[in-house]
Amino acid sequence: MNITQDKVVELDYKLTVNGEIVDQSEPGEPLVYLHGHSNIIPGLESALEGKAEGERFQVTVQPEEGYGPRDEDSIEDLSRDDFEDDIEVGETYYAQAEDGSVLPFTVINVDGDTVQVDFNHPLAGMVLEFDVTILSVRDATSEELEHGHAHSDDDDHNHDHG
Ligand SMILES: [Zn+2]
User: Fold this and answer.
1) Do residues 28 and 53 share a domain?
2) Structure pTM?
3) pLDDT tens-digit profile of 1-58?
4) What spacing in Å lies between the alpha carbon of 135 and ligand 1's midpoint?
5) Cα-to-centroid distance, 9 and ligand 1 (Å)
6) Whether residue 40 is found in the same domain as residue 86
7) Containing domain of residue 38, as a range?
8) Is 85 domain-assigned?
9) Count of domains in the chain?
C-alpha cells in the first residue's frame, strides 16, 4: 500500500542537523501519523507522499518546509522576577499565553536582572536531514479521520482533543 491522503503511516526516522543526530524514533516505538492532516512538518509529509511500505529514503527539508525561519523579533528580554526557579542558560522553559496555550522558550543569556529568551523553535532556521524507513501503511479508521490524527493500539480512545 502506498502513502496517500488519509493513510495511517508507521515509520522509523532519524533527524540530523549539521551532521548531528538531534532526534530519532526509539527502537520499537515508531512515529505514527495520519497522512494529509498536517500532523508532521510539511517537507517531510510531502516527501512521504506516494512512498510504499518497506521503503527507506533520505530527504533534506529547508526551514520554510520545516520549523520555519528564525524570527529575531522572537528574542525578548524578561525580568528575573518572572522566574520562580533557578535560571540556566540553554534550558527550555514554558510560558503560558493569554489563550492558555503553552509557549516553550530557551534562555540564551542572563545579565543581572535581565533574562534574554528566545521563543523560536529550537529547529527554526535549520536545514533538516531525515532518514526515514516506512514500516507500515494502512487505511485510517473513521474515528481517526474524525479526530484528525492516528490512534495506536494502546490508546484508550477517550483522550481529549484540542
Ligand atoms: Zn484521537
Assistant:
1) yes
2) 0.80
3) 999 999 999 999 999 999 999 999 999 999 999 999 999 999 999 999 999 999 999 9
4) 21
5) 15
6) no
7) 7-67+125-147
8) yes
9) 2
